[in-house]
UniProtKB/TrEMBL annotation:
Belongs to the UPF0065 (bug) family. It comes from the Bacteria. Residues 1-22 form the signal peptide. The keyword Cell division does not apply. The keyword ATP-binding does not apply. Keywords: Signal. It holds the Pfam family TctC. This is Tripartite tricarboxylate transporter substrate binding protein. InterPro entries: BUG, Bug_dom1.
Amino acid sequence: MKSQFLALAACVAASLAGYAQASDDWPNRTIRIVVAFPPGSPGDTAARIVADAAGRTLKQALIVENRPGAGGNIGAEAVSRSPADGYTFLQAPDTVVTVNPALYRKLNFRPEDLIPVVALANFNQMLVCTPASGLRTLADLNAQARKAPGTLSYASGGQGVPGHLAMELYLADAGLSILHVPYKGPSPATQDVLAGQVPCGFLASPVVAPYVAAGKLFGLAVSGSARSIQAPDVPTMAQAGVTGYDATFREMLFAPKGTPADIVERMNAAVAQALAQPEVRQKLQGNDLDPTPESPAQTALHLNEDAAKWAGVIRKNNLRMD
């Protein structure tokens, strides 16, 4: 498994060094961005904001097509099998290559089938609970889980998605057991938490932060190293008492393996230029997304580090899916 993770960085180096250069007229037609999660998800929001601005730079339309399902695997498979000509890209969280290869027993793509182009934005997961649950802090949840094991449950946006992994990382370290209730995306999960069908959720901050700000949910903690822009009173997991905890996730843009190096670099530059625009940054930050462009090689190294971390969590918790 380790060698597979190391290939994430190696495949980028090979792409940038070895593939034929693209024709000078790229792009000369519409570019398709396949989003691996449903409309309204953080990645979908990021893709649509960035697509407009990057399209103006590239002087071509960037259209967004949602292909959700299986923790991002359906969209990832579709793009991995697409022509490597610079006209199809995948928008997905980093977990499609850092988590899914270790979590799923069978995948119809390999992580090295996808080249990281650029990180669009960092984003957190937020642990939230309903007012009726009586849980206001992470210490409250910890105490309830120890006092009455098996009585608590939490919602996530699906098996193996960032919220699921963020919670399992915490539960493994704390020695707790809380029932996982997976949904098909963070939005339907949030609606059931709001309705009291599930008392808590570890869900994408861009989706739940507005409800925390409105007092409809209590935010116990966020998964990353920085607080939510929309709900700044909610502490990080580390600030809430979980020493060394950091589960920051990235919304990514990938290309099929074999995409010419100059196309990868030009798309990276176009997105970075878009992310530097004040109005784009403002829109992303207003959705609790932190713009973080970097080179394809830097992104690949971060993916490699995260893959190793999550593989350990998956082994420790014996998380496997068909």
